[in-house]
Design brief:
With 148 residues, the protein is mainly β. The protein has 2 domains: 103 residues, Umud Fragment, subunit A (Ribbon), CATH 2.10.109.10; 31 residues, no CATH class. It is built from 1 helix and 11 strands, in the order ββββαβββββββ. The longest helix is centred in the middle third of the chain and has 5 residues. The two termini are 19 Å apart.
């Protein structure tokens, strides 16, 4: 992994590098969960995950999740996020936010003039953003990469 850009109790952030080109074979016909497909013998298409996952290299970062506040949407401790800082956040998107000196991953919700950061785990409480908070939407989560 590249040099760490930032680390907190909720997230580690790393810059991306698209300097390398790594094209890997891809199965375009879909993958059967039943019997193997004879099409597997004819793989000739490849993709580069840098080009597939990173649309704005100069404003994209990786973030390693620490914690369980987003587990109900499939974002777990240790998962790797692709975070694009160039995107404008939309209501109900999953974002990385800077709140009072720390980063957090939450669903952003704007209702009745208030901004809320919503966890996706009933064990965590929503965070209401007020004018007293040092707050910034740092980036929009575009992909989650996980180990099985």
């Amino acid at each position: 992994m590249q040099n760490q850009f930032y680390s907190s109790s909720n997230l580690e952030i790393f810059p991306v590098s698209t300097a390398t080109d790594l094209s890997l074979p891809v199965i375009t016909a879909g993958i059967s969960a039943g019997f193997p497909s004879p099409a597997m013998d004819f793989i000739d298409v490849s993709i580069d995950l840098n080009k597939q996952l990173i649309k704005h290299p100069s404003s994209t970062f990786y973030g390693r999740v620490k914690g369980y506040s987003m587990k109900d949407v499939g974002i777990h401790d240790g998962d790797l996020l692709v975070i694009d800082k160039s995107l404008s956040p939309k209501n109900n998107q999953i974002t990385v936010c800077y709140v009072d000196g720390d980063f957090t991953i939450k669903r952003i919700s704007v209702n009745d003039g208030y901004c809320w950061l919503l966890p996706e785990n009933k064990d965590y409480k929503p965070i209401k953003i007020t004018e007293d908070n040092d707050f910034q939407v740092w980036g929009v989560v575009t992909h989650v990469i996980k180990s099985l």
